[in-house]
Task: inverse folding
C-alpha cells in the first residue's frame, strides 16, 4: 500500500503488549531509497527517549486510527540501545541494534531483506574490528523531516520543493517524491520517482531532476486527498515514457 510518509509521523506505535510512543521521524538510505528505521519518541514512558525500530517489525496498521503495531514487547524496546540525538547514526550503533534485536544488517556482500546487501550477524563484529567506519555516522542515512522542504531543480530551473514522500508500506521503499510547485504553479502537486532524480546536493539542500520544467508542468496532477492507485501510476509512467517498477 502506498502512503504519505510525513502523514505517518505522529502515528501511535504499539508493541504486542501496549503502546510505546509515536513516530517521530524516519531514516532512509539515499542510495537505495529505502526506509531503514522508524524513529519512535517514547514520550513520558521512557522520559522522552527515542529508539530506532526496523520497519520490518511493523505488522498490523490501523490507518483510520493512526496506529502501527510492531512485533516487539515493551520490555524489549525499554532495554534497547538508545539513540538519544538526531542524525548522524554511526554504523557501530546500527550493529549494536542489530545484535540486540537480531536484525539482519543491510550492508555487506550478499543479497538480503528487500533486495539490499547484508552480512550475517556473526560477521558484523569482525567487520567492525577490521574496518574503519566514519565516526560521524552512516553518510547514506537521511532524515525524512530534514529532506522535506529541499528545493527541486529541473534541468532548466527551479520548480518547487519536496513536500512529502510516498512509501510502499509492504516493502518500505520510497516510491515517489511529492513536489509542491505552489511557488511556480500555485496549488499544484506532482509526483516523481526517485530514479528520475539525477543527484541531490545535500549541502545546499537541492534535489536535481532528470526532467525539464515543461515536463513537470504538464505531468498528471496528484491529489494528496485521494488514494494513490495503480491506474494513476500507469498514467504517470506512461506520460514520462518510463517502465513501471511493478513489471
Result:
Amino acid at each position: 500500500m502506498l502512503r504519505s510518509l510525513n502523514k505517518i509521523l505522529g502515528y501511535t506505535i504499539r508493541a504486542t503488549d501496549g503502546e510505546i510512543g509515536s513516530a517521530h521521524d524516519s531514516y532512509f538510505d539515499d542510495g537505495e531509497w529505502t526506509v531503514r528505521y522508524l524513529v519512535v519518541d517514547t514520550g513520558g514512558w521512557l522520559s522522552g527517549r527515542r529508539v530506532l525500530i526496523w520497519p520490518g517489525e511493523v505488522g498490523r496498521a490501523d490507518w483510520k486510527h493512526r496506529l502501527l503495531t510492531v512485533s516487539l514487547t515493551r520490555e524489549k524496546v525499554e532495554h534497547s540501545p538508545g539513540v538519544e540525538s538526531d542524525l548522524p547514526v554511526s554504523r557501530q550503533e546500527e550493529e549494536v541494534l542489530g545484535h540486540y534485536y537480531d536484525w539482519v544488517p543491510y550492508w555487506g556482500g550478499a543479497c538480503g531483506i528487500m533486495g539490499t546487501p547484508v552480512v550475517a550477524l556473526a560477521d558484523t563484529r569482525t567487520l567492525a574490528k577490521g574496518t574503519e567506519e566514519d565516526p560521524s555516522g552512516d553518510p547514506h542515512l537521511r532524515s525524512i523531516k530534514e529532506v522535506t522542504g529541499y528545493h527541486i531543480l529541473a534541468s532548466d530551473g527551479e520548480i518547487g520543493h519536496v513536500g512529502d514522500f510516498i512509501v510502499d508500506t509492504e516493502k518500505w521503499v520510497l516510491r515517489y517524491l511529492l513536489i509542491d510547485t505552489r511557488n511556480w504553479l500555485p496549488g499544484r502537486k506532482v509526483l516523481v520517482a526517485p530514479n528520475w532524480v539525477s543527484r541531490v546536493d545535500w549541502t545546499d539542500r537541492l534535489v536535481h531532476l532528470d526532467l525539464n520544467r515543461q515536463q513537470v508542468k504538464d505531468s498528471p496532477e496528484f491529489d494528496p486527498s485521494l488514494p494513490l492507485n495503480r491506474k494513476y501510476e500507469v498514467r504517470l509512467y506512461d506520460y514520462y515514457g518510463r517502465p513501471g517498477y511493478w513489471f
Q: What stands out?
A: Helices lie at 5-8, 74-78, 91-101, 121-130, 144-147, 213-218, 230-240. Residues 109-135 have pLDDT under 50 and may be disordered.
